[in-house]
Amino acid sequence: MKRDLSILQFEEATHRYFVGGRASLSVTKILDLASITDFSSVNKDLLDRASKFGQAAHRATELSDRGTLDHSSLDAPLVPYLESWTQFCAKEISEFIEIEVPVWSKRFGFAGTPDRVALDKRGRLILPDIKTSRELSVSVKLQTAGYQIAWEELEGRKISRRVGVLLKEDGNYYSEEFTDRSDKDDFIACARVASFKLRNGVAHV
After folding, report:
1. pLDDT for residue 87
2. By the 8 A CB rule, do 175 and 163 touch?
3. DSSP state, 71?
4. Are residues 142 and 190 in contact, defined by beta-carbon separation less than 8 angstroms?
5. How far apart (Å, rounded) are the C-alpha atoms in residues 186 and 184?
């Protein structure tokens, strides 16, 4: 049974989701509020350019995986990043289950959109997260844990593998599998810290 996505809305300005009209912080916003991710020292123009490029690369991989990408329209700088993703998929993925489908947790009050949920070559559920940054941040292990919590709550099935996939400008990729079982607990702790900050005026969205 497919999830009823009609109950979910996304407010881009505050990066908040609303599930049945109730506000839910996004997975990435939780990590920001918990100070797991911090880009305050990065030049804003550089950060904006990197963000836009990352969004374009994500879109290219999404369209490619859906089989709707017009390769002739792809900007040249994006080509090696798409090749990186294609290489990873050829080695690790046998079938996509979901592509950019939102998830949410009523239990913990958050939502987000995993890049993919798929079956790996051995038929196990895998949740890969695509990155185009210079290196794979430690935050990715908690980001994927958040998505895993919500997906498993909604679907009643277990995800076996969480993997960060760093796409590179030379057409290769670096991947890291996250196996620490405490990642889920650590993400929930971050969600509680984020909620505490908002309730007590320490942070705002």
Report:
1. 98
2. yes
3. G
4. yes
5. 5
